Structure formats: structure tokens, C-alpha cells
Amino acid sequence: MRLRNKPWAKDKLEQNPQYVIQDPAACRGKWSEVFDNQQPLHIEIGTGKGQFITGMAKANPNINYIGIEMQESVIVSALDLLIEEQLPNCKLLNSDAADLREFFSNGEVGRVYLNFSDPWPKTRHEKRRLTFKSFLDVYAEVLPEDGEIHFKTDNQGLFEYSLVSFSEYGLTLKYVSLDLHKSEFEGNIMTEYEEKFSSKGNRIYRCEVGYPARK
Ligand code: SAM
């Protein structure tokens, strides 16, 4: 994502604590109190400008959503959307996904969404890919036994890499589409990148994978 310097972004994120979690470590194990209900909690990692997470929250008021994005100059656009939509079941977190264990207790997250994650094509950057095994370890801890990752991208190389990574980790492939927009999948909420790349004719790949039961 091309970054524009927004020196005011940090202040704006701090000025909206009803939407932007200010001290996520203090919420660990207590997200039902933060949302003030017992609904399932789904998170999107690399939420960008927030079109997907706010769209999902609007379409599914019985689920709580948190959009996690490490770039404050990007997540501030998601905050604008949230202020506009006033969604009680959606919050934002300006953090690195590598730190998820500090913010969520074991099994506290019902589902992880990864949308158009940065491909990091160079082998020396493999560890930064959000489907690298160290990230799968992190998701395994915050998800319950049967927790799922739902992943979509237009990048064939990243998709193939991720399917191998999921499989080597022992995850079960529950759904796969090699052309989402021509498939029968219903209820797709488009992300900003999805709109941009599908309008250029790129195919969208999507899969759902599940963690095995723990012994
Ligand atoms: N999901 C959005 C979409 O589909 O339009 C944005 C896609 S953009 C290519 C990927 C985003 O993931 C970037 O905004 C980047 O800052 C964020 N990201 C990458 N690694 C991350 C990490 N470890 N933790 C949180 N966000 C991350």
C-alpha cells in the first residue's frame, strides 16, 4: 500500500477511543466486556482502509469485528468509515499482527481474515508473509480448536505459497476458489484491493482453512 504521510493520524486515532482500541493488552480475555455482549469475535489482519471489516460488521450485526492494521496513516481511513457508519460491533487496532498473543487470550478469536496480504515475493522476506508458519503459530493460539482462517488475494504466487504453508502446518482445506467472482460463493464483501485488481481483470483466489483439534 502506498503511504501518504499523515502527521495528524496518531492524534486522530487517540481522539476516538470508542472505535480505536487504545490499550489492547488490557482487553486480553475481556473482549466481551469491551463490546458489552457475548457475540463471537472475528478479526481481519492488514485491514487497510477498512472497507471489508466495516462491510462485514454492517452485514453481520451479531458478530463483533476488529480490524488490525500496523500503519496509522492507513487505518485512519478505516476510522473515517467507522465514524460515518457508527457500527457498535466494529473496532480498530493499530498494531502488528505478530503481537496478537498479547491482545487475545487462547481461543478468544473465532475467525481470522487475511485479505490481499502483502506478498513479500523475495525469499529473504518470507517471514513477513502473514501466512508464514510463525504467524500460523500466533493464529493457532488466539483461535479455538476448530478456528478458521479465510484468505483471499489476487496474487497467484502468494496463494500457492499459502496453500503449501497451510498444508505443511496441518490445516484442513475447507473451501477453495480459483476465481471467486465467477464462483457461486455468496455474501462476498469486497476490499479496496479487490475492487482495484478485479476491475483490471485479475482473478481473485479465496480459501478457508481450519485448525485441527488439539491433543
Ligand atoms: N486488506 C486490505 C485490502 O484488501 O484492501 C489492504 C491490503 S494491503 C496490500 C496489506 C495491508 O496489510 C497493509 O495496509 C499493511 O500495512 C498491512 N499489514 C501487513 N503486515 C501487517 C502486520 N504484520 N500486522 C498488521 N498489518 C499488516
What does this structure look like?
The chain is α/β, with parallel strands linked by helices. It has one domain (9-210): Vaccinia Virus protein VP39 (Rossmann fold). It has nine helices and seven strands; from the N terminus they run αααβαβαβαβαβαβαβ. It has helices spanning 9-14, 24-27, 31-35, 51-59, 72-85, 100-103, 133-142, 156-169, 192-199, and strands spanning 41-45, 64-68, 90-93, 111-115, 148-153, 172-177, 205-210. A seven-stranded mixed beta sheet has the order 3-2-1-4-5-7-6, with helices on both faces. The N and C termini lie far apart (40 Å). The model has no long low-confidence stretch (mean pLDDT 96). It binds S-adenosylmethionine.
Topology (SSEs and partners):
Elements lengths: L8 H6 L9 H4 L3 H5 L5 E5 L5 H9 L4 E5 L3 H14 L4 E4 L6 H4 L7 E5 L17 H10 L5 E6 L2 H14 L2 E6 L14 H8 L5 E6 L5
Parallel strand pairs: 1-2, 1-4, 2-3, 4-5
Antiparallel strand pairs: 5-7, 6-7
This protein binds S-adenosylmethionine (SAM).
CATH class: Alpha Beta
Count all strands and give the number.
7
Going by helix content, strand content and strand pairing, the class is alpha/beta
Helix content: 25-40%
- Give the ligands present: S-adenosylmethionine
Order the strands across the largest sheet as they lie in space: 3-2-1-4-5-7-6
- Number of domains in the coordinates? 1
Ranges with pLDDT <50 over ≥5 residues? none
